[in-house]
Design the sequence.
């Protein structure tokens, strides 16, 4: 009643004493002015919304939703906001502490809207012609200013003149040489290379050197490392348990190769986003997908935590968020992830668009993905996998072909082979069976045994059996699914697994008192093993700490075949005893249902996955009596088996940790998406509030680019990524081209033209030389055809790049060197320091590629390299002379949560966040690392040995050390001081101080 | 060089105002320097945080619920129509604590028999009885409780405090982490990371029981060519070389900072042996901390070390109880009585000793002692006698500088399943710690990747209810 009264009052106020309609100028605008204009008026237009301009006020801001719905106040978001129905959406915002509209004023707006709203033309206002943000404008090639042979110099000098600055002179040849070597290869020149360059009279000596360095494989290793920073690459998953990611490294090698081969940039992008779809038979294009998967992955949330929990669903969302962030941050320099919970606060990116990008990746997970090893195999495997998918979900076309003669013959041949194989196995006749752990064993109609009751920590099933006489060459243990078992078994543990520690067999001749003799096995093979260390072979290795298991393939039959060392005749009446031991590991991992068979023929091949029970039942019935449905089931099963045999016969693929839809399920919680997962807009990023279903799409803020993706078949997840890959590499996509040239520039100058290489949005840096950036982008796209080597060449031949780093008049005017009146001094990176130590100590091993070089000792899980987690890592006591220590730093094993303290102190990224720009800190930890690290000290000793071997008096030894480490001769006082020092404390100490010098650590 | 030219802020990093370091400072730490710190007069000068790694069970330690005893063994049905989720198991039956409960102190706090020593000091503690996490999983929940974010890469509280305040002396780091002797906690060294803050703010790790407690503090033992003389003469040589190099590049403050960094390093090397040497501590002190018993020796050793560290000017010390992985921590899925009992025995006496010792030395007046964990555990069983993770409610406590003793804020529901009254979060927890140190959590920020990041994200309230 009270509320009603309030409304009547409000209405009377709103319509005015005389009952006149609401007048915009008199009644409405004052409200907007008083409460709204500060943020949504002539000065500020938060979220692109302003209430002083009619069109914008009605149409709405960046969210794309109309704010005012004519004649319907109830549906108008404006009313919802100002009335404060939802505290989180209320306007002015709760946090602003600004005065709120009175109920009467809200009612005035309601009436005004319901009546029209009437907004006279004279007050319509005009939106300020907002200048589009620099990065979102179309790419137009600017005219090169006069004043430099190299367009870079022309642009830079024009700006310098404008700022009343002058360029610095070229650095001396020695400085230039050292700078160029590190810039392009991350390594110092050798004395011979130095000599060659400094004494080369050819005026083109510098250009020749650039060509030589760009052609060196060292170039790809160095620039590949930059790219790995951007991709956030590491060899472990990160997070709480930080398991090893055994197959990350092929992607690292791909990156190095791509740089060395100067892969055109558009192709480089396309491969990393959708190489599998766009270049399906090129193994390297599949490896490139390691990019999307390179960042951290929460194993616990994705695999351990139950699938039906909020945590697990949130993890999937954040997993896709990581993929979207990687792709859009790297290739577009946009922070789209800021729009996960709400429209982007600073850039014109809506939450809807963000989820459209998530939808692009809705069909993939991060997992090991097979590739190659060669194009032919890759193509063959792709065909077979397509067939396999088709057989798993047969459509009408496929089912029709089953009736063709060719397929019928193939099925018949398969059935005959199956029958021959099955005939080789005769079930044992079980005499007694008992569980030492007190479990109950009951016989099933098919001759198998079902286990129920207690699940003790240890359990051995003791089976005694007979068979008719004859030769025995192998025993088959079938482990079978059953609806009564967790996850349908075949194990008894919650996840459906079992741990068969040991399988033992004994034979006792007939007659009382005869002793049972153990039967020894030569080999054990299974259709499926959990891994090389959890295979059937572990069930006959005599060790109680190893076992066979079938994780993650639950709910299906498996079998292990145990071949006798000594196949021979056993007369009828022999008593066989089998022990199925479950001794170790986690408790309760007994087999849930099994059958034992005897075989008398040697086996040609490893066992194939047994057929489902339904199919074997049909196969055991006479063909003439089968129904059409049964015939179809048999045909499909046979074709699958044949397909599987063909797959198994291919040369084994390599694996790369990448994205894929063909994830082998890992436990109950981590399962592949049969179809791309539905993506909903999540209000405030919360799962509890799913909004509209969102289709895959891109951004509308990129000038010249349509926001839609052209996707042939949205049910094909790879088509979604392929569409995005084309969108990203479209010639019109200005962001892509600006992004890469700026990124490359930033590594050459220590700072980008835009100094936030991953953020070209409003909160990122403004470009210092916008025209130059655009000119470079267009030149790189059109003339260089995406060749990064051409871009390097253009940059390092510019006068701008070759300037000295020394101070001059510019220091006072532009101490920050924003206008590039000199070159920037750079500290060597951790990798450069480490690699240089190895070069000078003569220990560097230039082997390229392969599994990561482990440069730490580990204790605990010895199998950690295949996906485990060592309990302790010790970098400090790792032998600095071990072969792994001698590899280039780009190949070292990168452990996300336990980084190498030496490299950590030198600002190498730890793989937790994308690192578009590295820090270069100066800290006491760094000083301590340079003073006390065992690896560094050992390399100093090696260098000392090299110097000592060439003999000479202390002064000349000091001179040699200066020449090698600092690449210059020692000045007389330095020479004297070092000679004295090395006489007292040896060459190794002397060398170490040179490595600690600023002159070594910085590049002029 | 004048030793006093270093400000406390500069330790382990870069700066050195005496060496043209003001330019340096602005180069490396723009935001922190712009903010006037402290924002208000601090109550606490330093913080010791005891972190129970794995999710300490609130309903077996501090959160007494008669319902769990009354309904022991019955199906868990909180009756709120909300789905009961456990992260790695199927929810079991209601399970009472295997430990006995009793009220303690003037304030009458309930504490279980798992913590007999701490129980004697409840009148000194201020409890947060209804803390809530956003995650039920160690990795994200630990990140949340150490850094305020669920994902890796964000600076930990200690790093923020180092960044804001530096250390109290010029020969110790501002932020020290003391991991369990058995191994690093969940998230490894990321648990003490400086994230995107300058690298010098990351937690200096002291492995208290290792032969070389600090990485790179000394040269390896087999480098016999390195002697005190080779070092001192060499440092002089290096200084000459670097001064000459810097003189020609006088505008580059990084080069002068580098010279300073070696002097700072030398000072740390000099102070460390005394810092780590417990031989000067009395037998009574050692006994108080439980150094004489195998079970309490490790945590006791590190609690005592924590006291020595704050005495010598360290700003933020984090003492970890429990390693990562599946055992030897507070992640008691299998058997609460056995596993949590053992974890509690290792922690209880040393933690209580630290409180007593700080108090006796007058340090508690301006030292904040905080006890926390990443989440709690479920009121129902996992397997038969274990408990699964529960982000819904958990307990932390504060003691010392600026803290109102003997109070408790918030309550969980009748099951200790979810926090329901005066619910607090990691944001409130960190806002309160910063507040006691004189820092406004909304003003301490750092621009990263386009966003002004804070320890408290965009949340957090200072918990005035537990402040004196």
Sequence:
């Amino acid at each position: 009643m009270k509320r009603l009264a309030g409304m009547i009052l409000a209405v009377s106020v709103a319509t005015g004493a005389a009952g006149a309609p609401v007048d915009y100028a008199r009644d409405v605008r004052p409200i907007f002015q008083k409460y709204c204009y500060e943020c949504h008026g002539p000065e500020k237009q938060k979220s692109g919304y302003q209430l002083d301009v009619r069109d914008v006020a009605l149409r709405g801001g960046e969210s794309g939703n109309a704010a005012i719905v004519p004649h319907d106040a109830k549906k108008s978001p404006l009313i919802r906001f100002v009335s404060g129905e939802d505290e989180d959406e209320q306007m002015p915002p709760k946090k602003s502490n600004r005065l709120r509209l009175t109920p009467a004023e809200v009612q005035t707006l309601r009436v005004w809207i319901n009546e029209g709203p009437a907004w006279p033309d004279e007050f319509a206002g005009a939106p300020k012609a907002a200048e589009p943000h620099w990065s979102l404008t179309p790419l137009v090639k600017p005219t090169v200013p006069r004043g430099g042979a190299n367009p870079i110099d022309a642009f830079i000098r024009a700006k310098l003149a404008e700022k009343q600055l002058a360029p610095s002179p070229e650095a001396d040849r020695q400085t230039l040489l050292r700078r160029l070597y590190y810039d392009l290869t991350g390594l110092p020149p050798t004395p011979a290379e130095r000599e060659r360059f400094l004494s080369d009279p050819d005026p083109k000596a510098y250009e020749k050197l650039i060509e030589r360095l760009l052609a060196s494989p060292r170039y790809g290793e160095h620039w590949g490392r930059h790219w790995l920073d951007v991709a956030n690459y590491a060899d472990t998953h990160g997070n709480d348990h930080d398991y090893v990611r055994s197959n990350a490294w092929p992607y690292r090698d791909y990156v190095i190769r791509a740089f060395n081969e100067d892969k055109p940039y558009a192709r480089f992008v396309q491969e990393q986003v959708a190489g599998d779809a766009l270049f399906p038979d090129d193994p390297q294009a599949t490896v490139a997908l390691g990019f999307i998967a390179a960042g951290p992955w929460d194993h616990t949330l994705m695999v351990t935590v139950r699938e039906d929990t909020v945590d697990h669903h949130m993890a999937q969302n954040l997993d896709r968020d990581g993929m979207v962030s990687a792709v859009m941050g790297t290739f577009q320099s946009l922070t789209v992830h800021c729009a996960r919970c709400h429209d982007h606060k600073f850039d014109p990116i809506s939450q809807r668009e963000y989820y459209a990008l998530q939808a692009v990746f809705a069909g993939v997970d991060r997992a090991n993905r097979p590739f190659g090893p060669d194009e032919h195999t890759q193509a063959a495997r792709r065909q077979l996998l397509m067939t396999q998918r088709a057989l798993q979900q047969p459509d009408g076309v496929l089912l029709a072909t089953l009736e063709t003669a060719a397929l019928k013959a193939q099925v018949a041949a398969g059935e005959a082979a199956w029958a021959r194989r099955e005939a080789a196995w005769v079930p044992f006749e079980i005499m007694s069976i008992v569980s030492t752990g007190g479990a109950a064993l009951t016989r099933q109609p098919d001759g198998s045994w079902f286990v129920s009751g207690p699940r003790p920590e240890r359990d051995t099933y003791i089976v005694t059996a007979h068979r008719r006489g004859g030769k025995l060459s192998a025993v088959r243990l079938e482990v079978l699914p059953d609806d009564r078992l967790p996850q349908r078994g075949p194990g008894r543990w919650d996840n459906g697994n079992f741990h068969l520690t040991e399988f033992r067999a004994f034979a006792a001749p007939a007659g009382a008192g005869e002793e049972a003799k153990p039967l020894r096995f030569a080999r054990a093979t299974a259709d499926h093993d959990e891994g090389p260390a959890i295979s059937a072979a572990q069930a006959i290795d005599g060790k109680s700490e190893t076992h066979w298991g079938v994780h993650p393939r639950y709910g299906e039959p498996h079998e292990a075949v145990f071949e006798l060392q000594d196949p021979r005749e056993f007369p009828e009446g022999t008593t066989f005893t089998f022990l199925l031991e479950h001794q170790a590991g986690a408790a309760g991992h007994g087999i849930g249902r099994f059958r034992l068979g005897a075989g008398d023929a040697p086996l040609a091949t490893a066992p194939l996955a047994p057929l489902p029970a339904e199919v074997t039942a049909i196969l055991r019935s006479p063909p003439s009596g089968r129904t059409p449905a049964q015939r179809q089931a048999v045909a499909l099963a046979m074709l699958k088996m044949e397909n599987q045999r063909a797959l198994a016969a291919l040369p084994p693929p390599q694996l790369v940790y990448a994205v894929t839809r063909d994830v082998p399920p890992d436990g109950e919680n981590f399962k592949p998406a049969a179809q791309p997962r539905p993506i909903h807009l999540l209000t405030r990023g919360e799962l509890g509030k799913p909004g509209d279903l969102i289709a895959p799409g891109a951004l509308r803020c990129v000038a010249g680019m349509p926001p839609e993706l052209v996707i042939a078949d949205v049910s094909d997840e790879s088509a979604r990524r392929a569409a995005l890959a084309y969108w990203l590499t479209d010639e019109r996509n200005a962001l892509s081209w600006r992004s890469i040239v700026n990124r490359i520039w930033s590594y050459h100058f220590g700072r980008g033209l835009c100094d936030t290489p991953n953020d070209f949005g409003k909160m990122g840096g403004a470009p210092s030389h916008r025209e130059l950036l655009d000119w470079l982008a267009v030149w790189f796209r059109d003339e260089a055809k995406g060749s990064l080597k051409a871009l390097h060449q253009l940059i390092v031949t510019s006068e701008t790049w070759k300037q000295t780093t020394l101070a001059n008049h510019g220091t006072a005017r532009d101490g920050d060197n924003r206008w590039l009146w000199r070159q920037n001094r750079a500290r060597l990176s951790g990798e450069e320091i480490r690699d240089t130590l190895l070069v000078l100590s003569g220990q560097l091993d230039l082997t390229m590629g392969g599994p990561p070089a482990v440069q730490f000792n580990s204790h605990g899980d010895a199998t950690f390299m295949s996906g485990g987690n060592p309990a302790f890592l010790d970098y400090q006591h790792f032998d600095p002379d071990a072969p792994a220590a001698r590899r280039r730093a780009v190949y070292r094993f990168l452990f996300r949560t336990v980084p190498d303290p030496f490299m950590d102190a030198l600002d190498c990224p730890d793989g937790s966040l994308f690192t578009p720009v590295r820090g270069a800190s100066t800290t006491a930890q760094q000083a301590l690392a340079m003073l006390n690290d065992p690896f560094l000290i050992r390399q100093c000793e090696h260098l000392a040995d090299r110097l000592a071997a060439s003999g000479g008096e202390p002064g000349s030894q000091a001179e040699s050390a200066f020449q090698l480490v600092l690449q210059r001769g020692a000045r007389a006082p330095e020479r004297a001081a070092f000679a004295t020092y090395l006489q007292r404390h040896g060459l190794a100490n002397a060398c170490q101080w040179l490595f600690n010098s600023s002159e070594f650590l910085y590049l002029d | 060089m004048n030793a006093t030219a270093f400000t406390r802020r500069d330790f382990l990093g870069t700066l050195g105002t005496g060496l043209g370091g003001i330019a340096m400072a602005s180069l490396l730490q723009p935001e922190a320097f712009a903010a006037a710190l402290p924002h208000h007069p601090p109550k606490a000068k330093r913080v010791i945080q005891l972190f129970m790694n794995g999710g300490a069970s609130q309903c077996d330690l501090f959160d007494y619920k008669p319902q769990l005893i009354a309904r022991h063994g019955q199906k868990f049905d909180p009756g709120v129509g909300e789905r009961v989720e456990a992260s790695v198991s199927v929810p079991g039956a209601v399970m009472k604590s295997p430990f006995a409960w009793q009220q303690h102190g003037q304030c009458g706090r309930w504490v279980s028999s798992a913590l007999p020593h701490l129980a004697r000091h409840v009148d000194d503690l201020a409890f947060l009885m209804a803390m809530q996490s956003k995650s039920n999983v160690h990795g994200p929940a630990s990140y949340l409780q150490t850094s305020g974010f669920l994902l890796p890469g964000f600076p930990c509280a200690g790093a923020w405090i180092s960044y804001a305040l530096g250390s109290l002396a010029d020969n110790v780091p501002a932020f020290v982490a003391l991991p369990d002797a058995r191994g690093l906690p969940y998230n490894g060294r990321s648990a003490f990371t400086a994230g995107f803050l300058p690298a010098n703010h990351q937690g200096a790790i002291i492995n208290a029981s290792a032969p070389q407690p600090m990485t790179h503090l000394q040269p390896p033992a087999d480098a016999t060519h390195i002697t005190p003389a080779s070092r001192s003469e060499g440092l002089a040589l290096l200084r000459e070389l670097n001064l000459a190099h810097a003189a020609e590049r006088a505008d580059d403050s990084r080069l002068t900072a580098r010279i300073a960094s070696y002097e700072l390093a030398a000072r740390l090397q000099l102070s460390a042996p005394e810092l780590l040497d417990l031989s000067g501590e009395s037998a009574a002190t050692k006994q108080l901390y439980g150094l004489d018993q195998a079970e309490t020796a490790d945590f006791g050793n590190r609690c005592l070390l924590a006291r020595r560290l704050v005495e010598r000017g360290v700003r933020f010390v984090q003492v970890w109880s429990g390693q990562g992985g599946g055992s030897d921590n507070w992640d008691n899925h299998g058997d609460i009585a056995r596993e949590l009992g053992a974890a509690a025995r290792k922690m209880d006496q040393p933690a209580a000793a630290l409180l007593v010792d700080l108090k006796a030395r007058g340090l508690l007046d301006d030292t904040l002692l905080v006890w926390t964990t990443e989440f709690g555990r479920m009121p129902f069983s996992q397997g038969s006698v274990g408990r699964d993770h529960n982000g819904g409610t958990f307990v932390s406590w504060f003691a010392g500088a600026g803290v109102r003793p003997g109070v408790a804020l918030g309550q969980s529901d009748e099951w200790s399943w979810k926090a329901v009254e005066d619910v607090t979060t990691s944001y409130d927890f960190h806002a309160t710690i910063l507040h006691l140190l004189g820092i406004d959590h909304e003003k301490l920020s750092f621009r990263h990747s386009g966003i002004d990041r804070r320890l408290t994200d965009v949340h957090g309230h200072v918990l005035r209810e537990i402040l004196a």
In short: Chain B has one domain: 44-229+283-412+436-448.
